[in-house]
Amino acid sequence: FSEMTEKDHRMIKAAYYAMIDLIDAQVGRMLDALERTGQRENTIVIFMSDHGEMLGDHGIYLKGAHFYDSAVNVPLIMSLPGTIKAGMRNQSLVELVDIAPTLLEAAGLGREPGMQGISFWSLLTDGSDVTSHREDIYSEYYNSG
Q1: Main-chain dihedrals φ then ψ at residue 120, nearest 5 degrees
Q2: pLDDT for 59-70, tens place per residue?
Q3: DSSP string for 63-100
Q4: For residue 34, what are the contacts with CB-CB under 8 A and spacing of at least 6?
Q5: I need a surface site. Which of 5, 48, 118, 134 has the fewest CB within 10 A?
């Protein structure tokens, strides 16, 4: 990456933003299909990622063994009209492992013994104190040496 020109850097970012635009369009198509078929009001939609992209931050591209915000701070967007508060944003610490218990609680089902994660359903539905979910999160990476 150290041999890349400024144009190379711009092209990589442009390609990444084009992928984001494509994903946005496809999510829109999915939401339109749910609306058209009458399923939107009874479907929890989740948009998430398992890792970020360095995109040139700190002179690094791609994912990898880096604990910078752009690599570990990922989107988690959930929607269920009439139940999850629309447009609400919060900065609570959640982990992807928290999604399964959250969905179980949303469905009125109990957790299996030994299941990892903490439900954050109350953060989505009743605006519970956003500082009460987690104090810290666990993150790991391999092949760092």
Answers
A1: -115, 25
A2: 777 776 777 887
A3: S-S--SHHHH---EEEE-TTTSPTT--------GGGHH
A4: 40, 43, 45
A5: 5
Centre a 10 Å sphere on the Cβ of residue 133 and count the other Cβ atoms it contains.
19
Residue matched to tokens 């982990």: 95
Whether the CA torsion 117, 118, 123, 129 is positive or negative: it is: negative
Pairwise CA distance, residues 47 & 68, whole Å: 21
Fill in the amino acid letter for 15: A
- Quick: pLDDT tens for 87-130: 888 778 888 999 999 999 999 999 889 999 999 998 888 766 66
Whole-structure pTM value:
0.80
Amino acid at 119: S
58 DSSP 8-state letter? G
